[in-house]
């Protein structure tokens, strides 16, 4: 749903856009229902003769441009339809979207561009074919100027919206300054090849705005990717933007009138949430004054001078300071140097010390605020524009925030100087007015500005458009909206009647009588009750007056009370007061029973009201009495009504005996009986205090006749309610009995042994079980837990009342024993665990033998592991001589029998692999295992040679075997010992020095192990480390600053690469892109400007170009810390693959191969497959105890957004 124009009413609560679609249509579409001077009116100018008619859309030969027509219709509904919300269903249907696409989260900037593209396609062949370009199209020119010959190389770019950086930028003006003012210098190791000079020269690159559109759209890049954490994140830092901005400093042409460069903010799309989902809403400026909310005008602040400012403790507003200094100068004109000196003299501190860090140099600050200061062409003098008075503002925080408080919202030349700009926040559940200063709250945080919309200040709205929602709306849409409003009015009248009318039941007091504790009709129910339909929005006084008019016979006072039917009859609860209150305010509900009386008596009987004296209908049982006062053998059961606040002793009035014992049936379900005696001391308590309710049974037992109890045989005499405790015991002894389970009465202090013996007796099992049985708790999944010790109480054993225990064969463990579960392997299936009772002083080794014997296994190639908190295999129990008690093994723990003998302490056991490196586009050297050639003592080192062909990206890893080696051994010892493994003997490696060692991570070489003489424990490999060995052609000696890279030259004309060549790059002078490019160029004997390089990411099948272009910085920023290839986004390390392209023979644009395309397609298919299978896996695992960590709810895969448009060419 999208918010509609509900501004003609005083209410500010209007539903807003459900997500980015609605926010975009309000912010971009017509520039909002309160600011429509844009796309909306441009669309309204296109009539049915060009767009067709929606009635003809199903005709085969009709050319109906559905998307523009539906947008026209939606904008007309937003402006004119008298309802709170307008539906976007018909619009999204015209896009060709399904319900799934409508509900999917998408980026609003992406929707903006796709919507513009769809509109352009839909309007081909009409007068609006260039509508989007007229409104939003601009151009940027990129220039490179040669410092030698001054030749200018330029390239022009078109844009419909400007995309600006947010990260490490303070605001919009700072970002535009970096993009369109500062120059990028090419020098030193990053020279520019000039086509005119035909050599490498120094040059400067810059960009400028060449053409500005009437409406400027700015997209803020708030979403980035963290390459360290491998996840997306949202930039929530402060990012300011002005209400009015002068783009003259950023434009190529500056000779036009100043008003051509001034833009006013009129809409802000705001994103609330994170990078994986959120909600959009929009701030919109009321340009056409369609709203009628009024802001209270604040009192204008007095003008200030420099003396006033000097008396303040802290001056944070540079705009106010500079204006005050200029006001004291003749003609408000001064040189920039003198301005800096006077600022120092007046304030005692220079501009650079106080303001430069936050606001930049003084000249730049003056140039950015051209709406206040006029800087000469050579930048030597500055004057103050007279059209902007000085305003005091002690809460100034930044340059951009100050521009919010200048007269920026008022368009130049506007005749209505008193008009206050109104802004509205259009959100899902409400539309509310906001002030301009509220926009500052969207500078930062999880709820912050995401897209900005500016319009040229010189664009003035015609007077007939102000406060006129019908302006420029086509006639056929006006007729449609008028007809729809008439229909809505009829429906509202019907709905109003259905929703606001109450049905009330009036009970007339004169036609009731009081007997047997409640009110009852004198005659029939129909004559005593009148039905009345009444508007719930009217007051209680209106209701009273209406009843007076109905009851012409009524005399005296009229009291209205709420009554309810109870089993005993009708009872009055609450008297209604407050004739000025509406029926809703006095809590009258639809179908309420209203008792009409004089407030005192009914039929001459005083009536008690309220819930305290509510009549209770009780069943009273007692002996039949003879005339002499003696009882007979027949029991009388009769209903009696008692007030809820009456004493229990009054029950004897319903029995022939004046005294005796009173018992209450407190059974929780029908058919059961559980009688409880009420002590004599409680006879003065009320029925309500005893918990009695309608239908409760009371038994009166004569005190002189205790032998003939009225209790039934199955009834149980219980002296107190606090003794009702039960434990359920199930027969799990695999022995037949009449009962499968029994309930044993117990308290928290009952000993487990007593419960077990009672259960054996009630289950009628053999007495021998008393010596060979135990009780075991049963969890909610039906699993038997550790047996409960016989000598403990239920409280000590932590057994709750009402829980279930299983009676099982076998004795419970003693206090010095442990009851353990164990299973084989690491994949535990619920219910497959075995059980064993061992002494807590038993060693791990002995416990392992007992478990192996019970499992029917033999051998010594086994070890024990504990299960962790998520029921998976945890750390092994390494110390075989340690006792279970020392390792803190407790009863109920689960141990796992895992195959494989643990290495001795200080010994590493690791798998050894043989590695044949392959390229990303790759080509096998042979399809066999990567063993050496059999020619003499040599072999092919795959890191430096090979033939071309397509291969998998992981490289060739061949398993050699496991090896045990001491942590104190050196790396060279590992290489030497690895040569002795059986498979590697075929490789005939002559010396360990000709082997390169890597750790194995994710089935690829990970960390390069460099120093041969370094001990293995210094590498901190861990217990689960794996090593792969790579053959070398010659011995290498890598220094601590050397990085080993694998370079591969791209084959011209093919999407493939030549064999890899190892490159050792010395990074002592820095990890710069220029240094790496020079090293690669030297390796292949090519000019550095004639190559392109890129790093390969095999896990993503992607290439990331490495360009010194984006590593350069301007002269102003050279003192900052330079970016390195070690950091984002490259994270260059040993073993990375670098693709090389020779630009002399290969001018293709990308580095990817056909195998990369196939790999990405496979990853996308796997992602979709996993998303579909997660629900199936969750459903299958919901009925069993999961052995894995509960998975986090997966994020849905991102999908591209598209709008389907017909062909109109």
TrEMBL record:
GO terms for cellular component: cytosol; nucleus. Keywords: Hydrolase, Protease, Thiol protease, Ubl conjugation pathway. GO terms for biological process: protein deubiquitination; proteolysis. One of its GO terms (molecular function) is cysteine-type deubiquitinase activity. Belongs to the peptidase C19 family. The keyword Hydrolase applies. Its EC number is 3.4.19.12. The keyword Zinc does not apply. It catalyses: Thiol-dependent hydrolysis of ester, thioester, amide, peptide and isopeptide bonds formed by the C-terminal Gly of ubiquitin (a 76-residue protein attached to proteins as an intracellular targeting signal). This is Ubiquitin carboxyl-terminal hydrolase 40. Residues 927-945 have a biased composition (Polar residues). Pfam families: UBL_USP40, UCH. Residues 921-948, 1187-1209 are annotated as: Disordered. It comes from the Eukaryota. Gene3D superfamilies: Cysteine proteinases. Residues 23-457 form the USP domain.
